[in-house]
Design brief:
Number of strands: 7
Distance between the termini: 143 Å
Structural class: alpha+beta
Shape: rod-shaped
Largest sheet: 5 strands, antiparallel
CATH topology of the largest domain: Rhopdopsin 7-helix transmembrane proteins
Length: 421
């Protein structure tokens, strides 16, 4: 196959790739409100523009006579979009949202704008074309742009590698697939640079199309930016309750930091371990569950501080009847238990106080003459003795004015004199 035939086949392949990329954009558009979708769609648009104008250039599509490299220049409208959008997408995928600020995004616009200005003003200075027409060597602007683009791609790759190393085991496969997409694009780009003089073809858009296809599949198929993968560090890592995820064989497949603190476990050693080896009272919990969807049991963790933990076991279902594993929620209820103990102590003290309080109830038989009271055993006793026996009241004796006048009249006159004074 000669070079001309190969170039024709490659041009047809580019048009087919444009259709594939357009379909990827349509599928991404349906989830455009999800985190990470906007930079992904910008990357796809850049791919489409890159391949479209490059295919028009290779097919010698009609162009103004004064602009023989019109389609070649227009390809860079799409080329400059790919590295920046890939970097922003990588930041979203690796949870570095705080680093993708509006200011950073505005800075990412500077180089693409300046580079395209250099391209369209190249006839005046030759910074881009260099000596390409004579010996196939492009100018300094091209190599600066290439270095800048590879820098952005390299930063995105570092983010993905670090994310892969920190990823939970059950998310590591997704992180690995995305991480390995970048070398694919780099290989195609290096092939283009190595054989540029011989083939005069750029295979870079094909490499980035493969990257986009992988990103599209993983993102849309495995829902990379749904609540579980993307917001996991917000939902699971930062909540105070412990969360442990088990598979159908009761093996631990995920555990958030709160659960690790409560159980004194390490995710690296606990992953794949049976729940009975890492979770106290597991046997009692499974016995109490009896196939129910939710079962709760309390247990105590001894340590520097004695903690009360409420453990709830829930069954997850993929379908109505097909189990998808188990979810364990651990909640620290130490404060609640302490409040319950304090309340129980208060109630006990009140009950004891009520027991000590003696009261008189009902009808009390009393003698109409001697004013004695008959007790429950039929004995008659003085009023003060009866009241003292049945209450905590104590009596002191004195004489009322009527009795004083009747019994001690000689003291009555003195009392009257004292009152007058």
């Amino acid at each position: 196959m000669n070079a001309e035939t190969f170039a024709t086949i490659y041009t047809v392949f580019l048009f087919v790739s444009i259709i594939i990329a357009s379909l990827m954009f349509v599928f991404a558009w349906r989830d455009r409100h999800n985190t990470g979708m906007m930079p992904f769609m910008v990357l796809i648009i850049g791919e489409i523009l890159w391949m479209l104008f490059y295919a028009l250039q290779e097919s010698d599509f009609i162009h103004p006579a004064s602009q023989p490299y019109l389609w070649s220049k227009l390809t860079y409208l799409g080329i400059v979009m790919v590295p920046a959008s890939f970097l922003v997408w990588s930041a979203s995928f690796t949870h570095h949202y705080d680093r993708v600020t509006p200011f950073i995004i505005s800075l990412l616009f500077i180089e693409p704008i300046l580079f395209n200005i250099v391209i369209w003003t190249d006839p005046w200075h030759g910074w881009f074309s260099g000596t390409f027409t004579t010996n196939g060597q492009l100018g300094i602007a091209f190599w600066i742009h290439t270095l800048y683009s590879y820098t952005l791609l390299f930063i995105g790759a570092i983010m993905q590698v670090l994310h892969f190393l920190r990823a939970q085991p059950n998310y590591r496969l997704q992180a690995f697939v995305v991480m390995m997409s970048l070398p694919i694009s780099s290989v195609f780009n290096l092939i283009s640079l190595a054989y540029l003089e011989e083939l005069k073809l750029d295979f870079s858009p094909v490499g980035f199309l493969v990257v986009g296809a992988i990103m599209s599949y993983v993102q849309l198929r495995h829902r990379l930016f749904d609540i579980l993968p993307v917001a996991r560090h917000k939902v699971m890592d930062e909540i105070l309750d412990g969360v442990v995820v088990l598979d159908n064989e009761d093996r631990i497949i995920d555990m958030n930091p709160a659960a690790r603190r409560m159980l004194g476990a390490d995710m690296k050693t606990s992953h794949g371990q049976l729940a009975e080896k890492a979770i106290p009272v597991w046997d009692e919990l499974t016995r109490n569950s009896s196939g129910q969807e939710n079962s709760t049991i309390d247990f105590i963790i001894e340590g520097d501080v004695r903690r009360h933990i409420a453990l709830t076991l829930s069954i997850m279902f993929k379908k109505r009847t097909k189990s998808g594993g188990k979810l364990i929620l651990l909640r620290d209820i130490t404060d609640r238990k302490k409040a319950e103990e304090e309340l129980k102590t208060l109630i006990t003290n009140l009950q004891n106080a009520l027991i000590e309080i003696k009261t008189l109830k009902g009808i009390v038989p009393i003698c109409a003459n001697f004013k004695k009271i008959r007790d429950d055993e039929g004995f008659w006793e003085q009023v003060e003795a009866y009241v003292s026996k049945h209450t905590d009241a104590q009596f002191s004796h004195s004489i009322c004015p009527d009795c004083l006048e009747k019994l001690y009249p000689e003291y009555q006159d003195e009392r009257r004199d004292d009152l007058k004074q």
